[in-house]
Predict the structure.
Amino acid sequence: MAFALLSKETHIDFAGFRRIAYGISLFFITIGMIAVILNGGLRYGVDFAGGVMVQVQFDRQIGDEQVKTALKNVDLPGLTVQQVGTEDRDYLLRFSDKAFEKQDLRASVAQALKASIPDNPSTIQRLESVGPKVGNDLRNMAIQALFYAVLLITVYISGRFEHSWFVAGAMAAVLWLAVWGASYLGFSQLWGVAIGLVVTLICCWKLKLNFALGAILALIHDVAVTLGLLTLLGVEIDLNVIAALLTLVGYSINDTIVEYDRIRENLRAIPADAQVKPTMPEIINSSVNQTLARTIMTSVTTIVASLALFILGGSVIHDFALTISLGVVFGTWSSIFIASPILMAFGSVDLYHSKAQVQNDYERPGEHGIV
């Protein structure tokens, strides 16, 4: 007998709960924004801010102040000591970049720790150094990667559900030129991408690309909430976190596409000459309930894997796993409570019904009995 998470189809009024869901999402976004503001911005790791990071492991537990005191005679400007793990034995040392050779720096840190804490031997497990120019370039490329991922998703969603490949492609080209132009005029990469996102949302709204608009708003929600909570938890944004965010974008849009597909199929099932058509909230509720078991099962299995990495994977992959875990939770939330219900704000059932009747030009394998 096949395994089923939900033995019966649910009948939850997701569309009716949308305002409560928007309030909950707004609460988490606000908390994240407050954390970012109080922190003076996102906490960038060595990958993006530049500098040196050294990971040290001691044989026995030790306090962070004792570690900092042991290194006071070593020229490490801006030194910060951060505990990693839960055993009070592993620490990350971060400081500004200096004209050190890696071997000289390793030897200086090791000798200072050995001289000041002789009864608690330590080993240097990792040493990374990134110059400020390289860090700035990496940060700009990471911002670009997130923006272009969202932009290409917009093109795909518009073509698949709105049948507007040409319009979406033209819009993407114009937006790419806009972001490039903003950079050329001296705007920072972050401001250029922010302007590009705003223009993307406006274009989708004006061109009636409602499915793409809902998907973009859901993705912006996922990234904003995750980054805010990471800042609140004191996690630094590095290449591992950016990789997790890009993974989150792909995961969340996959969930959203599944629900959009079901909405489209339910719209197509409405006879063109039907005297009484179901309302858009009824279509959305039916579609989300039909895919709910699949959505929950996918999310639970992904979270189990990411939590295993978080607990057992060690400090190197700790932030990646934490980002994935948070992202899966809020990505699932946005697919159910934001991406689909928000369609109601931009169109009626008649509009979506007419778009759903447009069939793809290709023939599916086996559609007419021939595989």
Remarks:
- The longest helix spans residues 280-312.
- The first strand starts at residue 51 and ends at 58.
- The chain has a mean pLDDT of 80.
